[in-house]
Design a protein that fits this description.
Alpha-D-Glucose-1,6-Bisphosphate, Chain A, domain 4; alpha+beta; 170 residues; 4 helices
């Protein structure tokens, strides 16, 4: 049964500044380096529309068993690849809406999320609602719980990184 999670983070920066960071190739390369990630940025397309701007990203991460939570590494002792597609759109109201789709290549797992970044007192607030699904008998729920816990831990770290990155690049 899929597991859901919700995480909220605040930033002293505007929604537009956060969107512009997400739309910058250097942001992603710096973020991967900061987190020691093996992720690659396969596509980054920024588009202007009458309703605002959007950015679409496609990323691939080669996960090795030694970098996975132990419950997942026991189930998948080899390597896994994870493909993530993110779409962020900012409108005239300065609200940013995002969708996140995650596909695990070589394993029966996936994830999806919706994010919103809204103006807040002194900056902005991002809320991510996600669902993780691993279709494995007996252990799928434990793996889903571990992945959900990892997202709840990682998203605030990404928020802090994004704040520092904007501070250094604004």
């Amino acid at each position: 049964m899929p597991r859901t999670f919700e995480v909220a983070v605040t930033s002293p920066h505007s929604t537009r500044q956060v969107f512009d960071a997400f739309a910058a190739t250097t942001y992603w390369h710096d973020r991967y380096a900061a987190f020691g990630s093996s992720m690659t940025l396969d596509e980054l397309d920024r588009t202007s529309t009458p309703d605002g701007e959007s950015v679409r990203l496609v990323m691939t991460e080669d996960l090795r068993a030694d970098r996975l939570p132990s419950v997942i590494a026991r189930v998948y002792p080899g390597e896994l690849k994870v493909r993530t597609t993110e779409h962020w759109q900012v409108g005239g109201d300065d609200r940013v809406h995002g969708t996140i789709e995650i596909t695990v290549l070589g394993a029966p797992g996936s994830g999806r999320g919706h994010a919103r970044i809204e103006p807040a007192s002194g900056g902005s607030r991002m809320v991510v609602d996600g669902t993780v699904e691993v279709r494995l008998p007996l252990v799928g729920g434990r793996v889903e719980s571990a992945i959900g816990a990892e997202f709840r831990r990682l998203i605030p770290d990404v928020g802090r990184f994004t704040t520092e990155w904007i501070d250094n690049h604004d």
